[in-house]
Fold:
Amino acid sequence: MLLSVDVFASSLRPGLIQGDPALRTIEQLAQDLENSHPTDQASKRDTYVDDIVTGADSVEQATRIRSELTRILAFGGFHLRKWTSNRPDFFVGVPPEDLYCEKFREFESIDDMALKILGLSWLPQPDCFTFKVSVDDRRCTKRTILSEIARIFDPLGLLSPLTFFAKYLMQLLWVSGVAWDDDAPDNISLEWKAFRAQLPVLSSVNVPRRMVSDFVVFTTTWFCDASERGMCAVIYCRMLDANGVCTVKLSCAKSKVAPLRKLSIPRLELLAAVLLADLMMSVQEALKPFHVVQDTFAWSDSSVALSWIKSCPSRWKTFVANRVSHIQDTIPPENWRHVRTADNPADCGSRGLLPNDLINQTSWWHGPYWLSQPADAWPRSAFSVDTDSYLDDAGLLRVGGRLSRAFVDFDIKHPLLLPRDDRLTVPLIEEYHQKFMHPGVQTLQNLLAKNFWILSPKRATRWSQEYMHTLQQQRNGTIGRLP
Structure:
């Protein structure tokens, strides 16, 4: 259950809220009385400016927390007011003048009453967060668009696909060079008006406040994705109870627009993985005092980014190496898995959605359908490529792809899949090099592609060509011996 209280009474607020003295006083009170109140954590951990927002597993525990907070802060002359909770029996014994609102005495009738908790709109009776955005019919300028975007307060990133769409429009405005109070270009204006017209539907979005329910096994799953527009990372909590029932809940998300300096899609996907690693560190730090996470899984639909992450950073150039090193320090490489783009909930967060589309996007709110199934029903391979690969009757890995109905040889429709630096790949390239009289890199790559699908083929064939050229020079005696 949740309980919230205003630390500073109205008469105390003006003098104490200037700077940090009030918060420093509360911190010192908690330290001084730590021995006599060893169970108190709310005053030390859950105090935010002039609010205390904490929780408990039962009404009895919440009542004890209320009593301890009242006694501790009374030593410093603080009188706690504006008590709120999602349970009506918590208010027993609380004077009417100390309630957030007298309506809490009739708890069942306040199902539509929203309170501001750290800037979020919270409905105490159904115990969920909601979103309400007011829309003004104003000229479409850079100033008005930025002003209305700022009204969407979403610190947990629950509306990331929607806020990303708005941030992307803002980036387009900056690129267009339009002045602050000039009308936006027609293409941006049309998209913004469609976006703004749908904002009122956000009032129908209700997100359960309690993220972690009762469980036997608790895991977290992380997804990341990138597009030319930007990148997104999203985290889900997966709880398995004693009856084997699995519950998946959206925990938090974060999105960023792509930098104006053009980057390749694989590099953007790598930046999305960095974003996920940073977000994951924050979530794990927040969960640490409360829950033990048994397993963690990270998912990406980029085979190139996964190949970077699962390799030694020293193999790559500086841009990739630095980011791979950061990711590996946070998320072990073996925890990464490949997911199809269609099953990646972060995909919509990296492209943006209009409000109507977001509220109906089930995969965003609950993750891919298989996430609520037993783990053995999840995508099996820890890493695969986007080629619909399969094992043939001989146990060889072949590419599926879209040529299955083409009137060409079987080996062309389904070439064998080979890694770039495999012990079979190198002599195979050398054989083709000699057989076809040392062709150029592109020609050699095309010849190999008739029967084989080699990962990073340009790098593999270029290395082989340089090696064969050096070998040929050595045989011809054109390279002198060192003294």
Observations:
- The first strand starts at residue 2 and ends at 6.
- Residues 8-19, 478-483 have pLDDT under 50 and may be disordered.
- The chain has three domains: 2-130, 133-385, 390-476.
